[in-house]
């Protein structure tokens, strides 16, 4: 009777072979038992639609699974792509696979989301030999707590504690796991998603591959990180890392990013003046939101962190929501951002805050509507970051923007796109307007209304772009009144 000594590594949101503890442990286990390693990836399109995964992100994932197949074959491991429907189909498939292939251990990375954690516990309870490895964060969820042993609810003390712990450790990514000689390249099953994703969206504008992602990281750290704080808020400038799509599906690990910072700026964890401080803080925000998902599972289930959020009387006007989705609110900076999202599957981070504030505070539309729409469009879609960002903007979250702070889209526009070059790229209807009118569209609307009878051609041009959907001062006053529910006990 053949012993069950083989191992399998289950790839999830970790489509890489560098710095992959689960893969390394699977190889070590097999070598110790003079056995074999295989790899699996589950395609679950029904589950993905329930989680609002964007079609462009699925295309990006499929491209990287193909490249992962090549990388694994080069170290002697065969990858199998399995088309199922949802998480519930995984248990019987794995039971049969483990029996047929004499699997003694399944290695996989822990995931912070509620459904994923439920899935894993169900598999373990059913007797599958699933070993979960902490590799999602640099510091494992639950390891950064306050003096009472509880998860921090404010970012700044979390960040200070995180840096202190990280500085006491060696942040060294693992190299490529070693196993055996290369094998012929396996032929993978194609993703069978058409029933749930009939309209495929190409991600070709984003370069694919682990080597590519690592080069982009290296280039950013060596050339651009010192200017990140100065330029990151300007959407017309290439001032951000653009690494979020690779982090979202695990082509890069957070540990690789922090290690790259420390290689060039060894004191970044302890020096508040380090040129790397601002981008390092962005990585710590990522950790903060992922730790929160584990500590507060309700965040994965569309619940406000602040329980008083349930008392907000959202307007939820569907026509206004559609205008926001399509980039037709009459505020050029908001509309340019939404069109960037719709056309590219990505949005500049400053603009994510601007449009989220506009939807939740100017239009008083439930943050969950915006969270879902973002997730359905973003190539870097990630529940923790998306939920955290939306609840921050709405004032309902952990360490949230106060309900009474309402982003002024005119101020944001003139400050961060002063020459309107970004706006003109995505809202060409306003290219002929003066900068004053672009940044303060209510003035243009007033002008168009006053002159409509005398200058019909001017009125026609005005009609090519809508008047502002709501007046800012009125919207601000209304938002403070309605969102005041968050301060009531």
UniProtKB/TrEMBL annotation:
Names of required cofactors: FAD; (6R)-5,10-methylene-5,6,7,8-tetrahydrofolate
Domain of life of the organism encoding this protein: Bacteria
Gene3D superfamilies, alphabetized: 1.25.40.80, DNA Cyclobutane Dipyrimidine Photolyase, subunit A, domain 3 (1.10.579.10), HUPs (3.40.50.620)
Coiled-coil region: none
Enzyme class: lyase
InterPro entries xref list: Crypto/Photolyase_FAD-like_sf, Crypto/Photolyase_N_sf, Cryptochr/Photolyase_FAD-bd, Cryptochrome/DNA_photolyase_1, DNA_photolyase_1_CS_C, DNA_photolyase_N, Rossmann-like_a/b/a_fold
Span of domain Photolyase/cryptochrome alpha/beta: 5-138
Record keywords: Chromophore, FAD, Flavoprotein, Lyase
The protein's Enzyme Commission number: 4.1.99.3
Gene Ontology MF: a single term: deoxyribodipyrimidine photo-lyase activity
Entry-linked PANTHER family: CRYPTOCHROME, CRYPTOCHROME CIRCADIAN CLOCK 5 ISOFORM X1
Family listed: Belongs to the DNA photolyase class-1 family.
Protein name: Deoxyribodipyrimidine photo-lyase
Organism: Shewanella aestuarii
Gene that encodes it: phrB
